[in-house]
Amino acid sequence: MSNTNITKEQEQASIAFVDRLFTHVSGRAHVRLNGDLAGFDAVRKKVYIDSYTEKTVSMPAGAFLSHLAREEIAELDVLEDWDGSNEYKLSTAVLLAAKRAIRRYHGGLVKDEDGQPCFEMVADGVVSRSYNVDQ
Predict the structure, then answer these.
(1) I want to staple 129 with a disulfide (CB 3.0 to 4.6 A). Which of 28, 53, 98, 118 is the partner?
(2) Which residues 6+ apart lie within 8 Å of 42 measured at CB?
(3) What is the distance, to the nearest Å, from the Cα of residue 125 to the centroid of all Cα atoms in its chain?
(4) pTM summary value
(5) Where are the domains of the chain?
(6) What's the rounded Cα separation, in Å, for the pair 57 and 132?
(7) What domain of life is recorded for the organism (predicted)?
(8) How many other CB atoms are found less than 10 A from the CB of residue 33?
(9) DSSP 8-state class, residue 28
């Protein structure tokens, strides 16, 4: 679990971003991709990935932005609202971002572009990797 210290203002901004992302942008475009569906539980304030093949994973919505790189946030920020014809584009972008953020939040092992195992973390909007995976 992440130990990122975020301010109350950052937490509120993150929740507002997630709310906009899952209501106005992806809205009714709940399309499962390879059995996975990204969602936002507004009551519990959690972003989650529901999967047919794996256990459902989640993270606090208030920590969502602090686990994405600036470029990833910018990509989500320019997505157009759901209009009935762009479901797959929106669902893909939101699902990939949610998977990245949740994986980083929980400290999950990933593989880089060369297939090497590593841990990813975000500091000041920049992703860094740690290849010391034996610990």
Answers:
(1) 118
(2) 19
(3) 14
(4) 0.86
(5) 8-107
(6) 24
(7) Bacteria
(8) 13
(9) T
Taking CA 20 as the corner, what is the angle to CA 25 and CA 96, rounded to the nearest 5 degrees?
60
Q: Is the dihedral of CA 9, 13, 19, 24 positive or negative?
A: positive
The contacts of residue 99 (CB under 8 Å, 6+ apart) are 36, 38, 49
Identity at 26, one-letter amino acid code = S
Reading the block at residue 67, the tokens are 């686990």
Nearest alpha-carbon partner for 63 in 110, 8, 120? 8
Report, in angstroms and rounded to the nearest whole number, the Rg of the chain calculated over CA atoms: 15
Chain centroid to CA 29: 17
Per-residue pLDDT of the chain (135 residues; tens, 9 = 90+): 555 688 999 999 999 999 988 887 776 656 788 899 999 998 999 999 999 999 999 999 999 999 999 999 999 999 988 888 888 888 899 999 999 999 999 998 888 889 899 999 999 889 999 998 775
Which parts of the chain fold into alpha helices (H)?
8-20, 70-77, 87-106
